[in-house]
Design goal:
With 344 residues, the protein is α+β, with helices and mostly antiparallel strands. 29% of the residues lie in helices and 15% in strands. The strands form 3 sheets. Strands 1-10-9-8 form a 4-stranded mixed sheet, covered by helices on one side. The protein has a 4-stranded antiparallel sheet with strand order 4-5-7-6, with helices on one face.
């Protein structure tokens, strides 16, 4: 997915927009489309956006990148489940105090033990195991995670790693509940996020619904999001034209963008989306600019590409005269002779 579609997804998931909160209108089901069916709903075990995108709203991170800042960096990281962070003098211990008012979707309280269990899974130190662990290499420098009380955790590194915080802010670093087996998280994930998982029907759809007990007041604005799985690009465009799904057309190449006018109230202006891709100018002037002029006899340019290709005999003579050709021919005669081949 391209950046504009990702931004639309994030704004829908967390209910954040550039406008003031008073301008947001609550309610409604956002109908999106996703181009592939993920193997499971477990973000920790998946490697693509097809699971991460729909499930990001089901979970929270300890920290996250500020969604109002266009480019991710260390300076754009803000607290999420953590209330802040601090490093020790050696830069090897990262301590994060946690929020105390967060509950999992099944009603159980979120504690530091959940953070410890999550990274024990990733470090493969727990009795429970992930089926696949694609981000194990991210934490090669992480020695262990310890809980200091119920609402504080410390990440102990083997050596200083200032950018370690960016790994925790990634969309692939949600916190999992300690009381739910990793096996169950593949089919029915439990999180702390603004949306609750409803249903996943492979090759058909993914549905999430508003979490009424979300710990961020008055969020999310949407009642739910439904992701229709459409593998064929043409079908995805037609469903948009029919107003069956809402998505941004800027991810399509120029020849795939539909030509037409959206009805008032549709999710986007089809003419505007298609108009962003300007038609290519006439190619003849560009080809003329790069075309090799034909060489005239005696003008000192007989070795230009046009004259060489128009005189195969001259090209063959040049190849025969070249040292590389002679070396290759001599090597071929020596190595390829019946006597030498018999020794192989």
């Amino acid at each position: 997915m391209k950046p504009c579609l990702g931004a639309l997804l994030m704004a829908a998931l967390v209910g954040v927009a550039a406008e003031p909160a008073s301008a947001q209108k609550a309610g409604g089901i956002l109908e999106m489309y996703t181009p592939d069916s993920p193997a499971s709903m477990s973000i920790l075990e998946e490697t693509t956006m097809f699971a991460q995108g729909p499930m990001m709203g089901v979970f929270n991170n300890l920290v996250m990148f500020d969604q109002h800042v266009k480019q991710n960096s260390l300076d754009s990281i803000v607290p999420d489940l953590a209330m802040g962070w601090s490093w020790n003098e050696d830069g090897t211990d990262l301590t994060l105090p946690l929020r105390e008012d967060v509950k999992w979707h099944d009603g159980k309280p979120f504690t530091a033990r959940d953070v410890e269990c999550t990274w024990d899974l990733l470090l493969e130190k727990s009795h429970d195991k992930l089926r696949v662990n694609p981000r194990k290499s991210w934490y090669r420098n992480l020695e262990r995670v310890s809980a200091t009380g119920d609402y504080e955790v410390t990440f102990h590194l083997k050596r200083p790693q200032p950018a370690f915080l960016t790994l925790l802010a990634s969309g692939f670093s949600p916190v999992y509940p300690c009381h739910v087996p990793a096996r169950d998280m593949r089919s029915h994930p439990i999180g702390t996020g603004p949306f609750k998982f409803v249903e996943f029907k492979p090759n058909e759809y993914i549905k999430v619904a508003r979490n009424p007990a979300y710990w961020k007041p008055r969020r999310p604005y949407l009642d739910g999001i439904e992701y229709t799985i459409i593998r064929d690009l043409s079908t995805a465009v037609l469903t948009f034209v029919a107003r069956e799904v809402r998505h941004d057309l800027s991810e399509y190449p120029p020849d795939a963008a539909p030509k037409g006018r959206a009805e008032p109230g549709a999710a986007g202006d089809l003419q505007g989306a298609a108009g962003r891709h300007q038609p290519q100018p006439d190619r003849q002037p560009r080809q003329a600019a790069f075309r090799q002029p034909r060489s005239a006899p005696g003008d000192g340019n007989e070795l230009g590409s046009q004259s060489i290709h128009r005189d195969p005999q001259r090209r063959n003579r040049r190849n025969r005269r070249s040292p590389a050709a002679r070396a290759g021919r001599d090597l071929g005669h020596a190595a390829g002779s019946p006597k030498n081949l018999a020794r192989l």
